[in-house]
Amino acid sequence: MEKERFFKGLRAVFNPSSVAVVGASEKPAKLGFHVMKSLTRGGYEGAIIPINPSSTEVMGIKAYPSLTEYPGTPDMAIIVVPAAHVASVLAECGKKSVKGVVLITAGFKEIDDPSGALLQKEVALLADSLSIPVIGPNTFGIVNLHARLNASFTPEFSLVRAGGVTLVSQSGGISHLLGFLAMKQGIGMAKIIGLGNRLNVDFADLLPFLAEDEETGAIALYIEGLDNPRPLLEEAKKLLGRKPVVAYKSGAGTRGDAASRSHTGSLAGRGEIYDGALHQACIVTVKSPQALLDAARVLASCPGLKMNTVAILTGQAGPGMAASDVCETEGMKIAVFSTQTQEKINALLPPLAMRTNPVDMGPAWYDARAIEGIVRAALDDEAVGGALILMMFASANRDVLPRIKDFFLEWKQKKPVITCFSAPEGIWDEDIRILEEAGAIVNFPTPERAASAMSVLGRYKTLTLMPFWGTTKDENHSHPSQPLG
Predict the structure, then answer these.
(1) What residue spans of 112-265 are helical by DSSP H?
(2) Could you say which of 148, 232, 351, 404 would form a disulfide bridge with 203 (CB–CB 3.0 to 4.6 Å)?
(3) CA–CA separation, 376 vs 344, rounded Å?
(4) Average of pLDDT values for 42-48?
(5) What 8-state DSSP symbol labels residue 170?
(6) 130 Cβ neighbours under 8 A, 6+ residues apart
(7) Are residues 47 and 3 both part of a single domain?
(8) Rounded distance between C-alpha atoms, residue 427 and residue 238, angstroms
(9) 289-301 and 447-464 are packed helices; what angle lies between their axes, rounded to 10 degrees?
(10) Coil, strand or helix at 367
């Protein structure tokens, strides 16, 4: 397939000026109905072209019997017709010079029938001969939050806030889980991409595309299995220092491995083997869907660590100890303050407070001036890579966060500041939102998640120091070329 045409097709898929929906319907039992609903209610401003041989209009928009009878040329087509008709529709896409396709239809390699794999091979050969990138089949679709393009069968994805995390997933279920978690947690997403059976668009094809995508700050991968991992590993390694990549590989256990094989027709493999290969490719690995979202969020939002050391500043001892345990378990060092820093902190603390790192600010937590001084002293210390700031609400400290908000805005992007500001709903929510949207902090609901997020920055920093960074081949750190199974 011609490379330049392929990437031009991917650009059209994610930023189309017009979209044809082949299989559009007004019947709620049909996926074509939900795709049309996603496009029309998601705020997409381009042309929507319903294709349905039995309707002259779908959702108030003029419909056409086939793609060939539409007088113009759609940038992108979403196909939601039975599997047996996909090849003929794809041939029409070629005749109309459609640049890219999202193939939602199931019934291919993932089914327990050899005919499905044969049909997928036939469609893949046709797509390649036409130089058309096809995302799918057996996918929920794709979403570009910045373009307000919801090319999926889930209209609710349009409610996710636009931001810097792009998710590339082999599972529609995990995509929905993380999309809805992002919605509830206020996490900004750039794109949500369901690879499905990976007809001719795989992880490795999307990484160089996303590397150039200004809206994507970090790339999150959900992996079930790969037929040939080498292309992904090689492309991921090229991104180190340009754009962080984090991955969650499921199927670590025997049953999970078997489920991975059957779900998307992929070859799975033992988790520890994958972890080693992904690490060599400079990909941060995590162990759960929530951890994947947390890691991508912090990598997209925070400046990088200059050193793997952290200052823990807490209003109460317990949260500080919980965060400290996680940091040390996950490889972060608790920073040792300089004498000058310690003297500055001592002068601002009440007599009974714990003065060394972690710093228990005790009653000082109710004094905005003291808090600002302590945080500033810690962040100014050259021995501190980043800061964890933990504050649990009490009625006496209600006004502290609003009063020190300007300080955090001043400090943004100089060093990573990860927080756990925990309060009843409606008290600090607006202040946290302003700080997060400005890139000043990343806030988590628990000290443990905040600390784990900081450790992700530390692990990414470690990857940048690996001796084989930037090489194309290293005999001591070679990538496997066969399926990891």
Answers:
(1) 114-130, 172-185, 203-211, 230-238, 254-263
(2) 232
(3) 10
(4) 97
(5) S
(6) 90, 91, 93, 94
(7) yes
(8) 44
(9) 60
(10) coil
- Print the domain residue range for 85: 1-133
| CA gap 360, 407 in Å, rounded | 20
> What is the tens place of the pLDDT at every residue in 384-419?
999 999 999 988 788 889 989 999 998 887 899 999
Instruction: Name the token pair of 263.
Output: 């779900």
pLDDT band (50, 70, 90) for residue 480: very low
Tokens of 359: 């710093």
Phi and psi, residue 425, nearest 5°: -55, 135
Separation between Cα atoms, residue 19 and residue 131, nearest integer Å: 18
Which of these three, 248, 269, 301, is where a domain ends? 301
Contact 18, 78 (CB under 8 A): no
Instruction: Quote the Cα angle for 320-325-331, to 5°.
Output: 120
Q: At what angle do helices 289-301 and 172-185 cross, to 10 degrees?
A: 60
> 145 is written with which tokens?
């939050």
Domain CATH number, residue 411: 3.40.50.261
Position 225 in a domain: yes
Asked whether 249 and 220 are in contact (CB, 8 A), the reply is: no
DSSP character string of 288-307: SHHHHHHHHHHHHHSPPPSS
Tokens linked to 272: 């520890």
In a domain? residue 139? no
Q: What is the pLDDT of residues 214-250, one digit of tens each?
A: 999 999 999 998 888 999 999 999 999 899 999 999 9
